[in-house]
Amino acid sequence: MMEYDVVVIGGGQAGLAVGYYLKKQKRPFLIVDEQNEAGDSWRKRYDSLVLFTPRCYSSLPGLDFSGDPNGYPSKDEMADYLWTYKETFQLPVVYETKVEKLEKTRDRFKVWTSEGKIYDAKQVIIATGAFHTPFIPPLANSIQPGIAQLHAFDYKGPEQIVAGPVLIVGAGNTGVQIAAELVEHHDVVLACGNKPNVLPQSVLGKNVFWWFDKLGLSKATVHSPLGKWLQKRDPIIGNDFYTVRKRAKLKGRLINVTDSKAYFAEGSPVSVQTIIWATGYRNDYSWIDIDGVFDQEQKPIHVRGVTNVNGLFFVGLSWQYKRGSALVKGVGEDAAYMVSQLSKHS
């Protein structure tokens, strides 16, 4: 059994940012990650993905993102940046290692891994990100086998989609970006549960995130009146929605698929050959065997990532503290706060 002051579970942007600050404090720590190398979670996403945050909002503490600070990095650029970040600061990461169980005995944590190794730690920071398990609604189970189905997580590009009309369920940023790409090759239907809120990437020559900062929106905290209002109105950012609105069919909430036709809460049915579920992700914390960590909805109980369990922390959660927590830059700020709290909760 190997002992550390801190074990960080997850080696994406959140885990690497935590590692940066832990190294500055000269703490003995280890980052455990199930990917093959730094940045792999970005590399596996669809080929045309471009971040809707510019490079100046997509960097972690201590290392600027190379290139035009006002330009938008591709998913592969983001992956390469994270690899460079890990190498630049020589962060101790064990890859290809999945954590299968986390438990606490007395004042120490035990981290059980797929490699059969057990890590012992005084403190544990869970940095697995806001979303890690693709969610597909139960309706998918009743759809006839002749209709191809995949989650947006498994979408790579138009070449993998069979001929025929495509239904995309979910009108968030991912669903809209995929729809905008596929309208060049297919008849596309986009099912929107709610009317999308759309913001352009730039206003009066300034990126929309620059305006968020100036107007204080990025600093809106999770429990503030403004923060609560914003959480219900997460916008689609960019011009892709306008392309989709012109060239695809927009429908309401999907309620059923029968005989190769999709039916919606309102409007006429449409034929469909492929369904792409852009229905988001759910957190899976079934491997955490510690009482008092989650509420009835299995969401972490925390204040700015500090849990009720002494020595256990989260970082990288959506709206962990403020609107900016969803951005790579905001993850770095949350990581700085988190590491500053370790000595107060030891």
Give a quick summary of the entry:
With 346 residues, this protein is α/β, with parallel strands linked by helices. The chain has helices at 13-24, 40-43, 75-88, 173-182, 208-215, 225-231, 240-247, 328-340; strands at 2-9, 29-32, 93-94, 99-105, 108-113, 118-126, 133-134, 148-151, 166-169, 188-191, 198-199, 202-203, 206-207, 236-237, 249-251, 254-258, 261-264, 270-271, 274-277, 281-282, 302-303, 306-307, 312-314. The protein folds into two domains: 2-132 and 283-345, FAD/NAD(P)-binding domain; 134-197 and 234-277, FAD/NAD(P)-binding domain (3-Layer(bba) Sandwich).
Characterize the structure shown.
This protein has helices at residues 13-24, 40-43, 75-88, 173-182, 208-215, 225-231, 240-247, 328-340; strands at residues 2-9, 29-32, 93-94, 99-105, 108-113, 118-126, 133-134, 148-151, 166-169, 188-191, 198-199, 202-203, 206-207, 236-237, 249-251, 254-258, 261-264, 270-271, 274-277, 281-282, 302-303, 306-307, 312-314. It has 346 residues and is an alpha/beta fold. It folds into 2 domains: 2-132 and 283-345, FAD/NAD(P)-binding domain, CATH 3.50.50.60; 134-197 and 234-277, 3-Layer(bba) Sandwich (FAD/NAD(P)-binding domain), CATH 3.50.50. Strands 1, 2, 3, 4, 5, 6 and 23 form a 7-stranded mixed β-sheet that branches. Strands 8-19-9-10-15 form a 5-stranded parallel β-sheet, with helices on one face. It has a 3-stranded antiparallel β-sheet with strand order 16-17-18, with no helix packed on it. β5 (108-113) and β6 (118-126) form a beta hairpin. α4 crosses α7. The mean pLDDT is 91.
